[in-house]
Amino acid sequence: MRKIRLALVSLDWIRPKDPLTNLGHASILATLQKYNSNQLTFLNDHRYSVKYCPDVEEFSENVVKNLIYDEPDLIAFGVYIWNELHTQLILKKLRKRIKERDYISIGFSGKGRGEGRIMIDYLRKPLILLGGPQISYAPINTLEGHYPDADLFIRGYAEKAVSKVVETLSTHVTSSGNMTSSYQFATHQQCFLRPISTTSSNISNPTMLLHKIKGLHQRGHPDLGIQAAVDMESLPSPFLPVETLENASSLDNNVSQSKLVNSPIIPLSNRSFIRWETQRGCPFKCTFCQHRDTYTNRQALSPPRTLSEIQEITSSPVNDIAVLDPTFNSGPNYLSTLDNLIKYKYKGKLSLQTRFEMIKPQFIEKCSVLVNELNANIQLEFGVQSIIKKESLVIQRMNNLNSVKENSSLLRKNNIKFEISLIYGLPHQTVESFKESIEFAKTLGAEKVVAWPLMLLRGTELERRKEELGLKEETLSSVDLDSELPRERISEGIPHVVESPTFTKGEWREMMRIANEL
Fold first, then answer.
1. Would you say residue 495 lies in a domain?
2. How far apart are CA 407 and CA 421, in angstroms?
3. CATH code, domain carrying 354
4. What is the pLDDT of residue 150?
5. What pLDDT is stored for residue 495 in this prediction?
6. What is the total count of domains within the chain?
7. pLDDT of residue 300
8. Are 299 and 328 a contacting pair, CB within 8 Å?
9. Rounded Cα distance, 227 and 155, in Å
10. SS3 484
11. Entry's Gene3D superfamilies (predicted)?
12. In whole angstroms, what is the distance from residue 372 CA to residue 362 CA?
Protein backbone atom coordinates (compact mmCIF):
# COMPACT_ATOMS: atom_id res chain seq x y z
CA MET A 1 0.00 0.00 0.00
CA ARG A 2 1.23 3.48 -0.86
CA LYS A 3 0.09 6.39 1.28
CA ILE A 4 -1.62 9.43 -0.22
CA ARG A 5 -0.99 13.12 0.32
CA LEU A 6 -4.35 14.90 0.20
CA ALA A 7 -5.24 18.60 0.13
CA LEU A 8 -8.91 19.27 0.85
CA VAL A 9 -10.01 22.76 -0.21
CA SER A 10 -13.08 24.63 1.07
CA LEU A 11 -13.88 28.04 -0.48
CA ASP A 12 -16.72 29.24 1.72
CA TRP A 13 -19.18 32.09 1.95
CA ILE A 14 -18.46 32.58 5.65
CA ARG A 15 -20.88 34.76 7.57
CA PRO A 16 -20.02 36.43 10.89
CA LYS A 17 -21.39 33.66 13.16
CA ASP A 18 -20.22 30.69 11.08
CA PRO A 19 -17.66 28.14 12.28
CA LEU A 20 -14.46 28.22 10.23
CA THR A 21 -15.29 24.74 8.89
CA ASN A 22 -18.58 24.33 7.04
CA LEU A 23 -20.67 21.28 7.86
CA GLY A 24 -20.23 19.46 4.53
CA HIS A 25 -16.46 19.91 4.58
CA ALA A 26 -16.35 18.77 8.22
CA SER A 27 -18.34 15.64 7.40
CA ILE A 28 -15.84 14.68 4.67
CA LEU A 29 -12.93 15.30 7.05
CA ALA A 30 -14.53 13.15 9.75
CA THR A 31 -15.15 10.34 7.24
CA LEU A 32 -11.54 10.43 6.02
CA GLN A 33 -10.32 10.45 9.59
CA LYS A 34 -12.43 7.43 10.46
CA TYR A 35 -11.93 5.24 7.40
CA ASN A 36 -8.70 6.39 5.73
CA SER A 37 -6.22 7.42 8.41
CA ASN A 38 -4.00 4.45 7.57
CA GLN A 39 -3.96 5.35 3.85
CA LEU A 40 -3.10 9.04 4.27
CA THR A 41 0.42 10.20 4.99
CA PHE A 42 -0.65 13.83 4.79
CA LEU A 43 -3.99 15.65 4.95
CA ASN A 44 -4.08 19.43 4.81
CA ASP A 45 -7.38 21.16 5.38
CA HIS A 46 -7.42 24.40 3.32
CA ARG A 47 -10.27 26.72 4.32
CA TYR A 48 -10.84 30.18 2.86
CA SER A 49 -13.64 32.73 2.87
CA VAL A 50 -14.50 34.15 -0.56
CA LYS A 51 -17.06 36.61 0.77
CA TYR A 52 -16.12 40.18 -0.20
CA CYS A 53 -12.89 38.97 -1.81
CA PRO A 54 -11.28 42.26 -2.96
CA ASP A 55 -8.81 40.78 -5.48
CA VAL A 56 -9.75 37.40 -6.94
CA GLU A 57 -6.51 37.13 -8.94
CA GLU A 58 -4.32 37.65 -5.89
CA PHE A 59 -6.52 35.37 -3.80
CA SER A 60 -6.34 32.52 -6.33
CA GLU A 61 -2.56 32.90 -6.68
CA ASN A 62 -2.12 32.60 -2.90
CA VAL A 63 -4.29 29.48 -2.77
CA VAL A 64 -2.26 27.87 -5.57
CA LYS A 65 1.02 28.64 -3.80
CA ASN A 66 -0.27 26.99 -0.64
CA LEU A 67 -1.41 23.91 -2.55
CA ILE A 68 1.85 23.53 -4.48
CA TYR A 69 3.76 23.78 -1.21
CA ASP A 70 1.86 20.71 0.07
CA GLU A 71 3.06 18.58 -2.86
CA PRO A 72 -0.21 16.60 -2.73
CA ASP A 73 -1.18 13.54 -4.75
CA LEU A 74 -4.83 14.56 -4.74
CA ILE A 75 -6.48 17.99 -4.45
CA ALA A 76 -10.23 18.02 -3.78
CA PHE A 77 -12.48 21.09 -4.11
CA GLY A 78 -16.13 21.68 -3.19
CA VAL A 79 -17.66 23.82 -5.97
CA TYR A 80 -20.65 26.09 -5.27
CA ILE A 81 -22.18 28.97 -7.18
CA TRP A 82 -20.53 31.47 -4.82
CA ASN A 83 -17.01 30.13 -5.46
CA GLU A 84 -17.30 29.23 -9.17
CA LEU A 85 -15.20 32.21 -10.29
CA HIS A 86 -12.53 31.57 -7.66
CA THR A 87 -12.40 27.85 -8.41
CA GLN A 88 -11.97 28.39 -12.15
CA LEU A 89 -9.07 30.79 -11.63
CA ILE A 90 -7.40 28.51 -9.10
CA LEU A 91 -7.70 25.49 -11.40
CA LYS A 92 -6.26 27.39 -14.36
CA LYS A 93 -3.27 28.63 -12.36
CA LEU A 94 -2.81 25.24 -10.70
CA ARG A 95 -2.77 23.41 -14.03
CA LYS A 96 -0.12 25.81 -15.35
CA ARG A 97 2.05 25.18 -12.30
CA ILE A 98 1.60 21.41 -12.62
CA LYS A 99 2.68 21.40 -16.28
CA GLU A 100 5.91 23.13 -15.30
CA ARG A 101 6.86 20.22 -13.00
CA ASP A 102 7.84 17.61 -15.60
CA TYR A 103 10.81 15.50 -14.59
CA ILE A 104 11.53 12.21 -12.84
CA SER A 105 13.82 11.07 -10.06
CA ILE A 106 15.74 7.81 -9.96
CA GLY A 107 17.02 5.99 -6.89
CA PHE A 108 18.25 2.58 -5.77
CA SER A 109 17.38 0.33 -2.88
CA GLY A 110 18.75 -2.96 -1.57
CA LYS A 111 20.97 -4.29 1.18
CA GLY A 112 23.68 -6.12 -0.66
CA ARG A 113 25.23 -7.18 -3.92
CA GLY A 114 22.69 -8.59 -6.36
CA GLU A 115 19.77 -7.37 -4.29
CA GLY A 116 19.46 -3.85 -5.64
CA ARG A 117 16.17 -2.63 -7.10
CA ILE A 118 15.66 0.40 -9.31
CA MET A 119 13.12 2.92 -7.95
CA ILE A 120 11.69 5.31 -10.55
CA ASP A 121 9.34 8.07 -9.45
CA TYR A 122 7.57 10.93 -11.20
CA LEU A 123 7.52 14.21 -9.36
CA ARG A 124 4.13 14.66 -7.76
CA LYS A 125 1.55 15.82 -10.30
CA PRO A 126 -1.70 15.88 -8.35
CA LEU A 127 -5.04 14.67 -9.53
CA ILE A 128 -7.70 17.39 -9.23
CA LEU A 129 -11.06 16.22 -7.89
CA LEU A 130 -14.22 18.36 -7.85
CA GLY A 131 -17.51 17.83 -6.02
CA GLY A 132 -20.37 19.95 -4.69
CA PRO A 133 -23.65 21.22 -6.20
CA GLN A 134 -22.04 22.75 -9.31
CA ILE A 135 -20.76 19.25 -10.12
CA SER A 136 -23.67 17.17 -8.83
CA TYR A 137 -26.30 18.90 -10.95
CA ALA A 138 -24.33 19.50 -14.14
CA PRO A 139 -25.97 17.79 -17.13
CA ILE A 140 -24.34 14.62 -18.47
CA ASN A 141 -21.30 15.18 -20.69
CA THR A 142 -20.81 18.82 -19.62
CA LEU A 143 -18.36 18.49 -16.72
CA GLU A 144 -15.17 18.41 -18.76
CA GLY A 145 -16.37 21.42 -20.74
CA HIS A 146 -17.14 23.39 -17.57
CA TYR A 147 -13.87 22.37 -15.89
CA PRO A 148 -11.16 21.60 -18.48
CA ASP A 149 -8.47 21.65 -15.79
CA ALA A 150 -9.94 18.94 -13.54
CA ASP A 151 -9.44 15.17 -13.65
CA LEU A 152 -12.10 13.60 -11.43
CA PHE A 153 -15.67 14.62 -10.55
CA ILE A 154 -18.06 13.37 -7.86
CA ARG A 155 -21.79 13.81 -8.24
CA GLY A 156 -23.91 13.54 -5.10
CA TYR A 157 -22.94 13.17 -1.44
CA ALA A 158 -19.17 12.97 -1.43
CA GLU A 159 -18.11 11.52 1.93
CA LYS A 160 -17.82 7.85 1.01
CA ALA A 161 -16.86 8.55 -2.61
CA VAL A 162 -13.85 10.65 -1.55
CA SER A 163 -12.96 7.96 0.97
CA LYS A 164 -13.08 5.32 -1.76
CA VAL A 165 -10.91 7.46 -4.09
CA VAL A 166 -8.23 7.65 -1.40
CA GLU A 167 -8.48 3.92 -0.76
CA THR A 168 -8.21 3.11 -4.47
CA LEU A 169 -5.24 5.41 -5.11
CA SER A 170 -3.40 3.90 -2.17
CA THR A 171 -3.57 0.46 -3.76
CA HIS A 172 -0.11 -1.11 -3.88
CA VAL A 173 1.54 -1.01 -7.32
CA THR A 174 3.46 -4.20 -8.13
CA SER A 175 5.27 -5.91 -10.97
CA SER A 176 6.16 -9.58 -11.50
CA GLY A 177 9.92 -9.02 -11.97
CA ASN A 178 12.70 -8.02 -9.60
CA MET A 179 12.18 -4.38 -10.60
CA THR A 180 9.52 -2.35 -8.81
CA SER A 181 8.02 0.86 -10.12
CA SER A 182 6.66 3.61 -7.93
CA TYR A 183 4.07 5.81 -9.63
CA GLN A 184 3.01 9.39 -9.22
CA PHE A 185 0.25 11.27 -10.97
CA ALA A 186 0.53 12.59 -14.51
CA THR A 187 -2.75 14.39 -15.17
CA HIS A 188 -4.67 15.14 -18.35
CA GLN A 189 -4.05 11.74 -19.89
CA GLN A 190 -6.29 8.77 -20.55
CA CYS A 191 -4.39 6.91 -17.84
CA PHE A 192 -3.57 9.26 -14.98
CA LEU A 193 -0.75 7.21 -13.51
CA ARG A 194 1.95 7.10 -16.19
CA PRO A 195 4.29 4.09 -15.65
CA ILE A 196 7.89 4.23 -16.77
CA SER A 197 8.81 1.47 -19.23
CA THR A 198 10.04 -1.69 -17.50
CA THR A 199 10.84 -5.27 -18.43
CA SER A 200 7.68 -6.41 -16.67
CA SER A 201 4.32 -6.70 -18.40
CA ASN A 202 2.37 -7.27 -15.21
CA ILE A 203 1.92 -3.80 -13.71
CA SER A 204 -1.25 -2.76 -11.92
CA ASN A 205 -2.50 0.82 -12.15
CA PRO A 206 -4.71 2.01 -9.27
CA THR A 207 -6.49 4.64 -11.38
CA MET A 208 -7.87 1.93 -13.63
CA LEU A 209 -10.09 0.97 -10.68
CA LEU A 210 -11.56 4.45 -10.14
CA HIS A 211 -14.41 3.87 -12.58
CA LYS A 212 -15.87 1.36 -10.11
CA ILE A 213 -16.64 4.13 -7.60
CA LYS A 214 -20.32 5.02 -7.80
CA GLY A 215 -20.85 8.68 -8.63
CA LEU A 216 -17.28 9.28 -9.83
CA HIS A 217 -16.66 10.53 -13.37
CA GLN A 218 -13.11 10.26 -14.68
CA ARG A 219 -11.89 12.50 -17.49
CA GLY A 220 -11.74 10.63 -20.78
CA HIS A 221 -14.29 8.02 -19.67
CA PRO A 222 -18.06 7.87 -20.37
CA ASP A 223 -20.09 10.23 -18.17
CA LEU A 224 -22.88 8.09 -16.70
CA GLY A 225 -24.39 10.92 -14.65
CA ILE A 226 -24.75 8.66 -11.60
CA GLN A 227 -25.09 10.22 -8.14
CA ALA A 228 -22.92 8.95 -5.28
CA ALA A 229 -25.04 7.50 -2.52
CA VAL A 230 -24.26 7.50 1.17
CA ASP A 231 -25.56 5.62 4.17
CA MET A 232 -25.86 8.44 6.69
CA GLU A 233 -25.83 5.99 9.59
CA SER A 234 -22.24 5.06 8.68
CA LEU A 235 -21.02 8.66 8.69
CA PRO A 236 -19.18 9.92 11.77
CA SER A 237 -20.44 13.08 13.39
CA PRO A 238 -18.33 16.23 12.95
CA PHE A 239 -19.45 17.29 16.46
CA LEU A 240 -18.39 14.13 18.30
CA PRO A 241 -15.01 12.44 18.82
CA VAL A 242 -14.16 10.42 15.71
CA GLU A 243 -13.16 6.78 16.08
CA THR A 244 -10.42 5.81 13.64
CA LEU A 245 -10.73 2.33 12.16
CA GLU A 246 -7.19 1.31 11.38
CA ASN A 247 -6.59 -0.59 8.13
CA ALA A 248 -10.32 -0.47 7.44
CA SER A 249 -11.88 -0.42 4.01
CA SER A 250 -13.83 2.80 3.47
CA LEU A 251 -16.87 0.72 2.45
CA ASP A 252 -16.69 -1.86 5.23
CA ASN A 253 -18.55 -0.64 8.29
CA ASN A 254 -18.30 -3.87 10.26
CA VAL A 255 -14.56 -4.06 10.79
CA SER A 256 -13.24 -4.80 14.26
CA GLN A 257 -9.72 -3.36 14.18
CA SER A 258 -8.32 -1.35 17.08
CA LYS A 259 -9.74 2.14 17.42
CA LEU A 260 -8.12 5.47 18.12
CA VAL A 261 -10.28 8.39 19.23
CA ASN A 262 -9.68 11.81 17.70
CA SER A 263 -11.09 15.21 18.63
CA PRO A 264 -14.30 16.42 16.93
CA ILE A 265 -13.83 18.25 13.63
CA ILE A 266 -16.11 21.03 14.94
CA PRO A 267 -15.63 21.16 18.71
CA LEU A 268 -18.60 22.65 20.54
CA SER A 269 -16.77 23.67 23.69
CA ASN A 270 -15.91 27.10 22.30
CA ARG A 271 -18.91 27.80 20.05
CA SER A 272 -22.24 29.54 20.52
CA PHE A 273 -23.56 29.02 16.95
CA ILE A 274 -23.59 25.96 14.69
CA ARG A 275 -25.22 24.77 11.48
CA TRP A 276 -26.72 21.32 11.95
CA GLU A 277 -28.50 18.70 9.85
CA THR A 278 -30.84 15.81 10.63
CA GLN A 279 -31.66 14.74 7.06
CA ARG A 280 -30.78 15.31 3.40
CA GLY A 281 -32.91 15.62 0.30
CA CYS A 282 -36.28 17.22 -0.32
CA PRO A 283 -39.54 15.71 -1.61
CA PHE A 284 -40.49 18.86 -3.52
CA LYS A 285 -39.51 19.84 -7.06
CA CYS A 286 -39.17 23.62 -7.04
CA THR A 287 -37.65 24.59 -10.38
CA PHE A 288 -35.24 27.14 -8.87
CA CYS A 289 -33.79 24.82 -6.22
CA GLN A 290 -30.99 22.24 -6.26
CA HIS A 291 -32.35 20.42 -3.20
CA ARG A 292 -33.91 17.40 -4.85
CA ASP A 293 -34.64 13.87 -3.72
CA THR A 294 -32.22 12.16 -6.10
CA TYR A 295 -32.57 8.76 -4.42
CA THR A 296 -35.48 6.41 -3.87
CA ASN A 297 -35.70 7.60 -0.28
CA ARG A 298 -34.32 10.65 1.41
CA GLN A 299 -31.48 10.16 3.87
CA ALA A 300 -31.99 10.84 7.58
CA LEU A 301 -29.53 10.63 10.43
CA SER A 302 -30.30 7.79 12.80
CA PRO A 303 -32.13 8.80 16.00
CA PRO A 304 -29.21 7.56 18.17
CA ARG A 305 -26.73 9.86 16.40
CA THR A 306 -29.14 12.80 16.56
CA LEU A 307 -29.65 12.12 20.27
CA SER A 308 -25.87 11.96 20.88
CA GLU A 309 -25.40 15.30 19.12
CA ILE A 310 -28.25 16.89 21.09
CA GLN A 311 -26.67 15.69 24.34
CA GLU A 312 -23.36 17.24 23.26
CA ILE A 313 -25.04 20.47 22.14
CA THR A 314 -27.08 20.95 25.32
CA SER A 315 -24.01 20.42 27.51
CA SER A 316 -22.00 23.01 25.53
CA PRO A 317 -22.13 26.82 25.15
CA VAL A 318 -24.10 26.44 21.89
CA ASN A 319 -27.27 28.53 22.08
CA ASP A 320 -27.98 29.21 18.41
CA ILE A 321 -28.66 26.40 15.90
CA ALA A 322 -29.50 26.82 12.21
CA VAL A 323 -30.85 23.50 10.91
CA LEU A 324 -29.89 22.99 7.25
CA ASP A 325 -32.59 20.42 6.42
CA PRO A 326 -34.30 21.70 3.24
CA THR A 327 -37.72 20.99 4.78
CA PHE A 328 -37.40 20.09 8.45
CA ASN A 329 -41.07 19.21 9.05
CA SER A 330 -41.23 16.72 6.15
CA GLY A 331 -38.68 14.28 7.56
CA PRO A 332 -39.28 10.93 9.27
CA ASN A 333 -37.64 11.81 12.59
CA TYR A 334 -38.33 15.51 13.09
CA LEU A 335 -40.81 14.97 15.94
CA SER A 336 -38.35 12.76 17.85
CA THR A 337 -35.67 15.42 17.29
CA LEU A 338 -37.93 18.03 18.90
CA ASP A 339 -38.75 15.58 21.72
CA ASN A 340 -35.04 15.18 22.52
CA LEU A 341 -34.46 18.92 22.43
CA ILE A 342 -37.27 19.22 24.97
CA LYS A 343 -35.96 16.30 27.06
CA TYR A 344 -32.50 17.87 27.31
CA LYS A 345 -33.96 21.34 27.87
CA TYR A 346 -32.54 23.25 24.92
CA LYS A 347 -33.15 26.95 25.64
CA GLY A 348 -31.38 28.69 22.79
CA LYS A 349 -32.36 29.80 19.30
CA LEU A 350 -33.47 27.17 16.77
CA SER A 351 -33.95 28.15 13.12
CA LEU A 352 -35.90 25.65 10.99
CA GLN A 353 -36.72 25.69 7.28
CA THR A 354 -40.32 24.49 7.07
CA ARG A 355 -43.43 24.32 4.86
CA PHE A 356 -46.75 25.92 5.82
CA GLU A 357 -48.85 23.14 4.29
CA MET A 358 -47.01 20.47 6.31
CA ILE A 359 -47.60 21.96 9.75
CA LYS A 360 -49.17 19.32 12.01
CA PRO A 361 -50.72 19.76 15.50
CA GLN A 362 -47.87 17.72 17.06
CA PHE A 363 -45.30 20.03 15.47
CA ILE A 364 -46.95 23.13 16.89
CA GLU A 365 -47.34 21.42 20.28
CA LYS A 366 -43.65 20.56 20.57
CA CYS A 367 -42.50 23.96 19.32
CA SER A 368 -44.85 25.53 21.85
CA VAL A 369 -43.25 23.54 24.69
CA LEU A 370 -39.80 24.76 23.65
CA VAL A 371 -40.99 28.36 23.45
CA ASN A 372 -43.44 28.67 26.32
CA GLU A 373 -42.00 26.22 28.86
CA LEU A 374 -38.26 26.26 28.13
CA ASN A 375 -38.09 29.83 26.83
CA ALA A 376 -36.33 28.72 23.64
CA ASN A 377 -36.34 31.02 20.63
CA ILE A 378 -37.91 29.07 17.76
CA GLN A 379 -37.62 30.73 14.35
CA LEU A 380 -39.52 28.99 11.53
CA GLU A 381 -38.51 29.99 8.01
CA PHE A 382 -41.17 29.61 5.32
CA GLY A 383 -40.20 29.93 1.67
CA VAL A 384 -43.43 31.26 0.18
CA GLN A 385 -41.52 32.81 -2.79
CA SER A 386 -44.64 34.24 -4.51
CA ILE A 387 -48.42 34.28 -4.14
CA ILE A 388 -49.03 35.03 -7.84
CA LYS A 389 -50.42 31.95 -9.59
CA LYS A 390 -48.55 32.38 -12.89
CA GLU A 391 -45.26 32.92 -11.08
CA SER A 392 -45.89 30.03 -8.67
CA LEU A 393 -46.72 27.62 -11.48
CA VAL A 394 -43.48 28.23 -13.37
CA ILE A 395 -41.41 27.65 -10.23
CA GLN A 396 -43.63 24.72 -9.11
CA ARG A 397 -44.09 26.31 -5.71
CA MET A 398 -47.85 26.60 -5.29
CA ASN A 399 -49.16 27.78 -1.92
CA ASN A 400 -52.56 27.08 -0.41
CA LEU A 401 -53.10 30.64 0.77
CA ASN A 402 -56.00 29.70 3.10
CA SER A 403 -53.75 27.14 4.79
CA VAL A 404 -50.98 29.71 5.03
CA LYS A 405 -53.34 32.14 6.77
CA GLU A 406 -54.71 29.52 9.18
CA ASN A 407 -51.31 28.16 10.18
CA SER A 408 -49.88 31.66 10.59
CA SER A 409 -52.68 32.36 13.06
CA LEU A 410 -51.94 29.14 14.99
CA LEU A 411 -48.25 30.00 15.22
CA ARG A 412 -48.99 33.49 16.54
CA LYS A 413 -51.36 32.09 19.16
CA ASN A 414 -48.59 29.83 20.41
CA ASN A 415 -45.95 32.62 20.45
CA ILE A 416 -43.92 30.81 17.76
CA LYS A 417 -41.95 33.24 15.62
CA PHE A 418 -41.75 32.79 11.88
CA GLU A 419 -40.12 34.44 8.89
CA ILE A 420 -41.40 34.53 5.30
CA SER A 421 -39.06 34.67 2.32
CA LEU A 422 -39.87 35.73 -1.22
CA ILE A 423 -37.93 35.78 -4.49
CA TYR A 424 -37.68 38.64 -6.96
CA GLY A 425 -36.59 38.31 -10.57
CA LEU A 426 -38.99 35.40 -11.19
CA PRO A 427 -40.38 34.58 -14.65
CA HIS A 428 -43.61 36.53 -15.37
CA GLN A 429 -42.97 38.80 -12.36
CA THR A 430 -43.47 42.55 -12.38
CA VAL A 431 -42.73 45.22 -9.81
CA GLU A 432 -46.44 45.34 -8.97
CA SER A 433 -46.80 41.57 -8.56
CA PHE A 434 -43.73 41.57 -6.31
CA LYS A 435 -45.33 44.25 -4.16
CA GLU A 436 -48.53 42.16 -4.01
CA SER A 437 -46.63 39.17 -2.60
CA ILE A 438 -44.95 41.43 -0.03
CA GLU A 439 -48.25 42.95 1.11
CA PHE A 440 -49.80 39.50 1.57
CA ALA A 441 -46.77 38.30 3.55
CA LYS A 442 -46.98 41.33 5.84
CA THR A 443 -50.60 40.53 6.76
CA LEU A 444 -49.58 37.17 8.23
CA GLY A 445 -47.88 38.62 11.28
CA ALA A 446 -44.43 37.26 10.52
CA GLU A 447 -41.56 38.58 12.59
CA LYS A 448 -39.71 39.28 9.37
CA VAL A 449 -40.32 39.30 5.62
CA VAL A 450 -37.24 38.95 3.43
CA ALA A 451 -36.73 38.78 -0.34
CA TRP A 452 -33.81 37.28 -2.26
CA PRO A 453 -32.78 37.75 -5.90
CA LEU A 454 -33.22 34.83 -8.28
CA MET A 455 -30.07 32.95 -9.27
CA LEU A 456 -30.18 30.21 -11.90
CA LEU A 457 -28.49 27.32 -10.16
CA ARG A 458 -26.82 24.70 -12.33
CA GLY A 459 -29.03 21.78 -13.29
CA THR A 460 -32.31 23.35 -12.17
CA GLU A 461 -35.29 23.50 -14.51
CA LEU A 462 -35.20 27.30 -14.57
CA GLU A 463 -31.59 27.21 -15.72
CA ARG A 464 -32.49 24.79 -18.51
CA ARG A 465 -35.43 26.96 -19.60
CA LYS A 466 -33.78 30.37 -19.29
CA GLU A 467 -33.75 31.08 -23.02
CA GLU A 468 -37.34 29.91 -23.46
CA LEU A 469 -38.43 32.15 -20.55
CA GLY A 470 -36.30 35.07 -21.74
CA LEU A 471 -34.31 35.31 -18.50
CA LYS A 472 -31.16 37.41 -18.76
CA GLU A 473 -28.37 37.05 -16.24
CA GLU A 474 -25.65 39.45 -15.21
CA THR A 475 -22.68 39.05 -12.92
CA LEU A 476 -22.74 42.00 -10.60
CA SER A 477 -19.80 43.89 -9.19
CA SER A 478 -19.60 46.68 -6.64
CA VAL A 479 -19.74 49.15 -9.52
CA ASP A 480 -23.21 47.87 -10.47
CA LEU A 481 -24.62 48.30 -6.98
CA ASP A 482 -25.83 51.58 -5.57
CA SER A 483 -23.55 52.55 -2.71
CA GLU A 484 -26.51 53.33 -0.46
CA LEU A 485 -28.00 49.84 -0.80
CA PRO A 486 -27.05 46.97 1.52
CA ARG A 487 -25.07 44.25 -0.27
CA GLU A 488 -25.92 41.38 2.05
CA ARG A 489 -28.57 39.99 -0.31
CA ILE A 490 -26.59 40.59 -3.51
CA SER A 491 -23.57 38.35 -4.00
CA GLU A 492 -20.82 40.04 -5.99
CA GLY A 493 -19.39 37.85 -8.72
CA ILE A 494 -22.47 35.59 -8.91
CA PRO A 495 -24.87 35.77 -11.89
CA HIS A 496 -28.36 37.07 -11.05
CA VAL A 497 -31.43 37.28 -13.26
CA VAL A 498 -31.76 41.01 -13.89
CA GLU A 499 -34.10 41.16 -16.88
CA SER A 500 -37.00 39.23 -18.45
CA PRO A 501 -39.91 39.91 -20.84
CA THR A 502 -41.91 41.28 -17.87
CA PHE A 503 -39.32 43.50 -16.17
CA THR A 504 -36.41 45.64 -17.29
CA LYS A 505 -33.09 45.89 -15.52
CA GLY A 506 -34.24 49.22 -14.10
CA GLU A 507 -37.38 47.56 -12.72
CA TRP A 508 -35.27 44.75 -11.29
CA ARG A 509 -33.21 47.36 -9.47
CA GLU A 510 -36.44 48.81 -8.12
CA MET A 511 -37.37 45.35 -6.77
CA MET A 512 -33.90 45.15 -5.24
CA ARG A 513 -34.45 48.49 -3.54
CA ILE A 514 -37.83 47.37 -2.18
CA ALA A 515 -36.33 44.09 -0.92
CA ASN A 516 -33.50 45.86 0.87
CA GLU A 517 -35.99 48.11 2.68
CA LEU A 518 -37.98 45.20 4.13
1. yes
2. 16
3. 3.80.30.20
4. 94
5. 86
6. 2
7. 86
8. no
9. 5
10. coil
11. Cobalamin-binding domain (3.40.50.280), tm_1862 like domain (3.80.30.20)
12. 15
